[in-house]
Design brief:
The complex is a heterodimer. By secondary structure, chain A is α+β, with helices and mostly antiparallel strands. Chain A folds into four domains: 87 residues, no CATH class; 54 residues, bsu07140 like domains (CRO Repressor, 2-Layer Sandwich), CATH 3.30.240.20; 62 residues, CRO Repressor (2-Layer Sandwich); 51 residues. Chain A is built from ten helices and eight strands. In chain A, strands 2-1-3-4 form a four-stranded antiparallel sheet. In chain A, strands 6-5-7-8 form a four-stranded antiparallel sheet. In chain A, α1 packs antiparallel against α2 and α9 runs antiparallel to α10. Chain B is mainly alpha-helical. Chain B has one domain. Chain B contains two helices and no strands. Chain B starts with a helix and ends in a 7-residue tail after the last helix. The model of chain B has no long low-confidence stretch (mean pLDDT 86). Classes of the chains: A alpha+beta, B mainly alpha. Chain A: Belongs to the UPF0702 family. Chain A: Keywords: Cell membrane, Membrane, Transmembrane, Transmembrane helix. Chain A: It is found in: Cell membrane. Chain A: This is YetF C-terminal domain-containing protein.
């Protein structure tokens, strides 16, 4: 066999082996890798490279290192799932750096991490004033997790005591011009409904790049032709405005009429619509 | 516009709102949102009912505008 064929077969074998090992090592995000994980990855790469370039001597003597470097992490991984002590040893422990708004300088020294490092990590989390931080923790992978003081946290609906309506994820029903049957049936809709909706806005199905349906069945469409401006549905907003207008109308009629029973009916109607407006605002407006 | 004409317009827009609300209630999967839609549908029905009855009285009083 010529030398290049052997090299080819060798490289292919190593490639497949490393590929299988990488799949087996699991799906952990690269960003979550600890220092040791990174070392493992580099070591596997070096061994695989040396092996396929035939730098490592015979295949028999070079394969065991690869097996060790792939096999040990897997074994350690399963052990660390089972035992907390192994986990702390392998993955490292998280360190509390700021607690109750106070920087724990002895912990900083332990890591070790300088005050500049801490400040720069905080800046990366968009915190420029360390006094805004209630609690900060250095994760095993070197990322800083920051918990801000209550008054520095971003406003949410619950801090404003706003009632917000539930909104489920919109379903993508056309992607790249192709109708997706599965999301449509998940919404309880079908292709005919989609054709009808597209006809309503005057668009041919083949011109649609993306289309999504929200939880109340409104269709949002993006066309291949970016020069065409297509208005997005405003049904919710329109419904809300219509209700408010009807409420104002009823109040007006109540004032205008002289018939007492009619006056009462209009006042009641205005009250009912006012209740609806309050009730539906979270669903229709936000 | 006559009074009955104005009331008819309001009634029409309320009926439009009712159909939109009904379609929302039909498609919405979330139980809570669906309940909110259906409850408000009932409220709207009461409003529409009251105005329709008033419209009959108005048409009786102003027969020349009937059906407009």
């Amino acid at each position: 066999m010529p030398e290049w064929t052997i090299a080819f077969i060798r490289a292919t074998a190593v490639y497949l082996l490393v590929f299988a090992g990488a799949r087996w090592l699991g799906k952990r995000q690269l960003a979550q890798l600890t220092l040791f994980d990174r070392i493992t990855v580099v070591a596997i790469g070096v061994v695989a490279g040396a092996l396929s370039l035939n730098l490592a001597g015979s295949l028999a003597s070079a394969l065991p290192p690869l097996v060790v470097w792939i096999g040990f992490p897997i074994a350690l991984f399963y052990l660390s799932i089972k035992f907390k002590t192994v986990r702390d040893l392998v993955q490292g422990k998280e360190t509390v750096l700021i607690n109750h708004g106070k920087v724990l300088d002895d912990k900083l020294l332990e890591i070790p991490m300088s005050a500049e490092d801490l400040l720069s990590q905080l800046r990366r989390k968009k915190v420029f004033n360390f006094a805004d931080v209630e609690f900060a923790m250095l994760e095993p992978d070197g990322e800083l997790s920051v918990f801000l003081k209550k008054d520095k946290r971003p406003v949410t609906a619950s801090t404003l005591e706003l009632k917000v309506g539930h909104e489920s994820v919109p379903q993508t029903v056309i992607m790249d011009g192709i109708m997706m049957d599965e999301p449509l049936t998940a919404m309880g809709l079908n292709r005919r409904w989609l054709h009808e909706e597209l006809e309503k806005i005057g668009v041919a199905p083949e011109n649609v790049f993306l289309a999504q349906v929200d939880s109340v069945g409104q269709l949002y469409v993006d066309l291949f032709d970016d020069a065409v401006h297509l208005p997005q549905p405003k049904t919710k907003e329109l419904l809300f405005v219509n209700l408010k207008k009807a409420q104002a109308d009823c109040e007006l009629y109540a004032l205008a009429t002289k018939d007492p029973s009619a006056k009462q009916m209009y006042t009641e109607a205005a009250g009912l619509i006012a209740e609806m407006v309050v009730d539906l605002a979270p669903l229709l407006k936000r | 516009m006559t009074v009955s004409g104005q009331v008819k317009q309001t009634l029409a827009s309320l009926k439009g709102a009712r159909s939109t609300l009904e379609s929302f209630a039909a498609v919405e999967e979330n139980v809570e949102a669906k309940r909110a839609y259906t409850e408000n549908l009932q409220r709207l029905d009461r409003v529409i009912d009251g105005i329709e009855k008033r419209l009959q009285v108005l048409e009786y009083e102003e027969p020349q505008y009937k059906g407009l």
